[in-house]
Input
Amino acid sequence: MSILFQMASSPNAAATPLLTAKYRTRMTNRTIIDNFPLILAVLATWGSSRLLGQTFQDFFKNTLKKTDKEIKKICRFSADLPKLAKTTFEGLDVTFVCTLLPLLLDKSKDDPNNILDKDLQEQLSEIRKVRNDVMHEPDGGAVDPTVASNIENIAMKLLDIGGKMYKKKADEINMAKSMAKKIITDAQDMVKTGKEHQTIQCQALLKEDGLKQLREKVEKFKEKSPLLQQLQSYFHLQLCGTKGKITSKGILKSLNELEEQIIIIEGESGSGKTLLLREFLRDILRIEGEVNKFEGSQAFEIPLLIACRNVSYRTLSELWRKEFSEVVERVEGKDLIDTALGKMRILLLVDGLDEINENSNALVEDVQQFLKNHADAKCIFTARPHSVKQFEQQLDKEGLPFQTFKIEEIESKEEQLRFLKTACNNGPAIAKAYEEVDLKLKSPVLLASYSYSYSKDPTSVKGWTLPSHVMRGVIDYGLDTAVLRLNTRNIQASKRIGDFVLERISYISFCCLLRMKLTLGKQEINWLFRETGDKCTGLNVDTTEILSCFFPAISTDIDNVDFFHKSHQETFAVLHLYFMMTNSRKSPKEIFQEASENYEDICEEQDGALQREYEDEKGVSEFFRR
Output
């Protein structure tokens, strides 16, 4: 079945022709921009003394006698330096060529007042502007049908100026103009070919059906998260970078305007990094007419979130096929989605570089390669402070320019109160209770947790004076609720069963941390259900009803369960250590060994690798350092 037939049967088929026309225009405009350096190459042959086959680097160094420092200044980013090893403009971005060309051209003897040179610079600025409109505005300059004629006009003016500067005859100038027109018409014809036409159709499908699939996933995530349900609106955070401060509201706009493809957002545990990425995702996915929370979000067409802690795939191709499974079923060609997305304005949101595993490590490497191959793609990474420096060094090595911003804490009591009032459900009442206690919670996750606990039991938060009380309070509320539910069944041992379930959750949370696993997977979930079910045998108790007191989204039908936050898991893990050290009087090393052995049984592993990792004090010390 052809892709055209498949699309015709779509419920969105009426909207498809408009989308297809838009993507055809945009692809035409971008192709012309990509090929414009071939037109600028004519000026270089007319007015440069650079020898045929001579690299730009060699010309600057040995012909113009520029120092290494001066040559480096030509390149705005370290990623541009390798481009100077080329001998032609082919494959270079038009912005870089516009910077390079004036430096390659000899001064015209017939232009003592630099009038022609100024005219040349003016037209180069015009083509830069058109390039930025086309590449950075999916629904603006990128789909403007007049762009092709505007680019042709700029090309004609540049060739006229170059002809005057270097005394070219009329027939040579006209020949160059004919070549420029052919480059533009070839680009227009190219998008009508079978392969390009299918790519355009695939882009339309991604926009119509792919984004709908992403929206459904975002809504499901919010339903699973009790903390997100507690928040009624997003509270914009302050971030600090090397060039000054910015609010989270302006991050996407800044990224869109920056030459750098990458922003790294650094923040401590609970500072709001994950929520910020999910809000970016939600904002870009808003349907037409909805109000956007973040400036610049409309510049991006396709947002994709990658959570390093629990990805099960190693390549972006696998990610595309999972996130856009409905589109995959309706297109032909294994690499068609890869090609289509590579030509769209895509934003990759990679969360938790400090939580990387074997799969996500391979995936992050693939992300970097994708960014190298697609200069218009953008990416935001998040990480805790200890892993930022190493990743920055890696990006420098790969020649990928970036900027780093650090999320600032919500320092003042006034700002904390404003967070509770504006971001949380029943905010004024929660803020009033918070104002009356001696408590300073500087991170969004702790404030949201406080709000969650207050909404469940306003009296529970009155005695809290430390941040650690908040996450322990969430766990205590879960325990109290479990005991209450058991009491409604007139079960006499309800407190003992509740304590048993808490111990089991604490144990499996500790085991996951041993493996640096930051969610409960299928094996851990099944084990919890078996242990709890065995304890409640014959008591007419629904196991899910008890476990959901601690994890509201848990069930046997899902593959993983997220903790409220990293500190939520860590608090459970500390409780396990406390239970074991007080009840069994075992040393930390003995506790680690016993847990490792039992956890390998749960996961049906026989190699003993986890036990070996914690068989000496070094492994135990490294765990506590983490």
